[in-house]
């Protein structure tokens, strides 16, 4: 994170308070850094503050909240397992106790398992996928919305914003990813339904659907040359994704520029979901 903004210059998210789940690694880390750079105070939430050793981020030895503080931003870390409702409730309480309110929830934490045919999936895989990728984010959304409803509509025209990190796998079927795809398709539909219910409350709910992005989660794919070749074939753009590609869209969805956008699932995927490339 570079903080080259002058002291008087306001960022796009100055004064906003954001929770980012899964903030220690990969996209969550890039999103936390991008929102902090625009002036948001960040509650970094994850199982542990340290980045995954399998990831590709620079300054990996420095936890996200410390990196933000070192760059002049405001951030705290709160341990939160998306599988545990009481920890999600506590997370939202902590944000409000620390910074006085909540403006943004980015539901980014997620699980994936290496590719396998549907018949080899187990109940345990289904339980963990649906629990962490769908039920946990739904609980976090409800807790955030309860808090948003206690707050007035701000000058930005919104009472609060939610961005869910879904997946292009929730749009296009990808061989070997059935449980993951179903959990993400559910998250994408959850985005649309919650947006519909709470548009009248001036609460924006959108989702970003990443394609192939180089992170700890996808490192088994990125460490296998034959899978890299396949991923390149199915991604029309000449390169695969990096966490900052996703962070830029999340930042836009959290900004006032996206005030009249809700219920959308936006693929950021180098064209992965567009069609079959030559
Ligand atoms: N990497 C990809 O190619 C890709 C593509 C599409 C969607 N996604 C989605 O993007 C999101 C971020 O993944 P990433 O690729 O940055 O992975 P990552 O492994 O780099 O980061 C995921 C983070 O989530 C945390 N986490 C895992 N389980 C958790 C739990 N139960 N509670 C709280 N935190 C938990 C991990 O500790 C980790 O810090 C996920 O929802 C993932 O499904 C990733």
From TrEMBL:
<dbReference type="InterPro" id="IPR002347">
    <property type="entry name" value="SDR_fam"/>
</dbReference>
<dbReference type="InterPro" id="IPR036291">
    <property type="entry name" value="NAD(P)-bd_dom_sf"/>
</dbReference>
<dbReference type="Pfam" id="PF13561">
    <property type="entry name" value="adh_short_C2"/>
</dbReference>
<keyword id="KW-0560">Oxidoreductase</keyword>
<keyword id="KW-0521">NADP</keyword>
<protein>
    <recommendedName>
        <fullName>NAD(P)-binding protein</fullName>
    </recommendedName>
</protein>
<dbReference type="InterPro" id="IPR020904">
    <property type="entry name" value="Sc_DH/Rdtase_CS"/>
</dbReference>
<comment type="similarity">
    <text>Belongs to the short-chain dehydrogenases/reductases (SDR) family.</text>
</comment>
């Amino acid at each position: 994170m570079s903080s080259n903004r002058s002291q008087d210059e306001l960022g796009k998210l100055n004064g906003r308070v954001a929770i980012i789940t899964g903030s220690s690694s990969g996209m969550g880390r890039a999103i936390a850094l991008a929102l902090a750079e625009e002036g948001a105070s960040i509650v970094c939430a994850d199982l542990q503050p340290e980045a995954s050793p399998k990831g590709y981020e620079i300054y990996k030895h420095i936890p996200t909240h410390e990196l933000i503080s070192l760059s002049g931003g405001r951030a705290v870390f709160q341990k939160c397992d998306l599988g545990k409702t009481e920890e999600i409730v506590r997370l939202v309480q902590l944000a409000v106790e620390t910074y006085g309110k909540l403006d943004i929830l980015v539901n980014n934490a997620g699980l994936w398992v290496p590719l396998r045919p549907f018949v080899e999936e187990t109940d345990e895989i289904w339980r963990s996928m649906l629990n962490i990728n769908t039920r946990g984010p739904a609980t976090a959304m409800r807790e955030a919305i309860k808090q948003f409803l206690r707050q007035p509509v701000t000058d930005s025209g919104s009472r609060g914003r939610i961005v869910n990190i879904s997946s292009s796998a929730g749009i296009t079927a990808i061989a070997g990813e059935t449980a993951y795809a179903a959990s993400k398709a559910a998250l994408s539909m959850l985005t649309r339904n919650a947006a519909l219910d709470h548009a009248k409350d001036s609460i924006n709910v959108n989702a970003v659907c990443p394609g192939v992005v180089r992170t700890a989660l996808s490192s088994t794919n990125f460490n296998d040359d034959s899978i890299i070749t396949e991923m390149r074939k199915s991604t029309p753009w000449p390169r695969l994704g990096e966490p900052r590609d996703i962070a830029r869209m999340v930042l836009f969805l959290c900004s006032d520029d996206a005030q009249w956008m809700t219920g959308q699932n936006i693929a950021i995927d180098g064209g992965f979901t567009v069609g079959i490339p030559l």
